[in-house]
Amino acid sequence: MSTHPLAARTAVLISAAGRGSRMGGDLPKQWQALSGRTVLDRAIGAFQGFARIVVVVHPDDMGRAIAELGGRVTLVAGRDTRSGSVRAGLETLDGSGLGHVLIHDGARPLVAPPVIDAVLDALAAGAPAAAPALAVTDALWRGAVDRVTGFADREGLYRAQTPQGFALDAILAAHRADSRGAADDVELAHRHGIPVTIVPGDEDNLKLTWPGDMARAERITKRRNMDVRLGNGYDVHAFGPGDRVWLCGIAVPHDLGLVGHSDADVGMHALTDAIYGALAQGDIGRHFPPSDPQWKGAASDIFLRHAAELAGRMGYRLGNADVTLICERPKIGPHAAAMQARLAEIMGVAPDRVSVKATTSERLGFTGREEGIAAIATATLIGGA
């Protein structure tokens, strides 16, 4: 949703009437799926908040366009050429009272708000036209039949992108006066004396042209949709009678045990709460109430496995987990690797995503007095990737 002050007085024209034969596939590229939505739907979605959105589609696609887009946008039947299609869309805006129009390729579904805002900023500052572009940084060759035949100077060359913004009346007049067509609207505007300001483009704002472009676009959408969540947990259990303590799923010999409603595995409890916390799902007590007698003496792997499975059902995977046990005794180092492996097994992840370590409190506090053990845990969950 654009919040730029000029958006409410600006139309958007999306050109989507081409056939996209170089892309391959059973459908024109603008109707192909990209991470669960059509390419065209993503392009349209980038311009919410504008005064009006006009979409030019191929006449053969009009039925589908009405079914999928009707009511959201103004649909216009395209012409035989790109310039003809754009002009048809511009004609529907004549007399609208809007001052500017952004013309965008329907095959550019990943345009980001900063690119759009840069065009609007230039128009708001008084530029009659503005368009995003990237400076050419690669060496340029000429070639024929897979052989280099010459070279070109890259100085002052740019790779054009869209949306390209214009004063509406000026670009409509240019289209009406032009009979030659153009590769894009900047070329046509320049031909008719409209100065165009270059604003920064974006490498992710690619135009889908070749089959490999779709795979790259999928990677970009996954990266953008990535949801990283961080949770932490803390738990304490007091020492009591016993000859071992359960820590991170491992029975560690000791001259005392730990007291708790379940098996009092303080490390596993802290980690379980860290995962619940990252999911905004409370703590162990919410899911396994201590008032319920069925959980008395229960093995804590039940709790941790439930938290890990819940994360999976909610669309998240564990990025990493870090558990710190705080105690004077027993010594954790000899058992840390086994604890790491056990936690990883319960959560269904590789051991290198789990860390188990220990520290003392320098004889301070209840852990320093060897009255109990504390644990701190952090879990990172990654969703949408």
TrEMBL record:
Residues 229-381 form the 2-C-methyl-D-erythritol 2,4-cyclodiphosphate synthase domain. GO terms for biological process: isopentenyl diphosphate biosynthetic process, methylerythritol 4-phosphate pathway; terpenoid biosynthetic process. Its cofactor is a divalent metal cation. A divalent metal cation binds at residues 235, 237, 269. One of its GO terms (molecular function) is 2-C-methyl-D-erythritol 4-phosphate cytidylyltransferase activity. Pathway: Isoprenoid biosynthesis; isopentenyl diphosphate biosynthesis via DXP pathway; isopentenyl diphosphate from 1-deoxy-D-xylulose 5-phosphate: step 4/6; Isoprenoid biosynthesis; isopentenyl diphosphate biosynthesis via DXP pathway; isopentenyl diphosphate from 1-deoxy-D-xylulose 5-phosphate: step 2/6. Transmembrane segments: none annotated. It catalyses: 4-CDP-2-C-methyl-D-erythritol 2-phosphate = 2-C-methyl-D-erythritol 2,4-cyclic diphosphate + CMP; 2-C-methyl-D-erythritol 4-phosphate + CTP + H(+) = 4-CDP-2-C-methyl-D-erythritol + diphosphate. PROSITE patterns: ISPD, ISPF. Its EC number is 2.7.7.60, 4.6.1.12. 4-CDP-2-C-methyl-D-erythritol 2-phosphate binds at residues 235-237, 261-262, 283-285, 359-362, 366, 369. The record marks 22, 29, 261, 360 as: Transition state stabilizer. The record marks 154, 207 as: Positions MEP for the nucleophilic attack. Bifunctional enzyme that catalyzes the formation of 4-diphosphocytidyl-2-C-methyl-D-erythritol from CTP and 2-C-methyl-D-erythritol 4-phosphate (MEP) (IspD), and catalyzes the conversion of 4-diphosphocytidyl-2-C-methyl-D-erythritol 2-phosphate (CDP-ME2P) to 2-C-methyl-D-erythritol 2,4-cyclodiphosphate (ME-CPP) with a corresponding release of cytidine 5-monophosphate (CMP) (IspF). In the C-terminal section; belongs to the IspF family. In the N-terminal section; belongs to the IspD/TarI cytidylyltransferase family. IspD subfamily. This is Bifunctional enzyme IspD/IspF. It comes from Paracoccus sphaerophysae. The gene is ispDF.
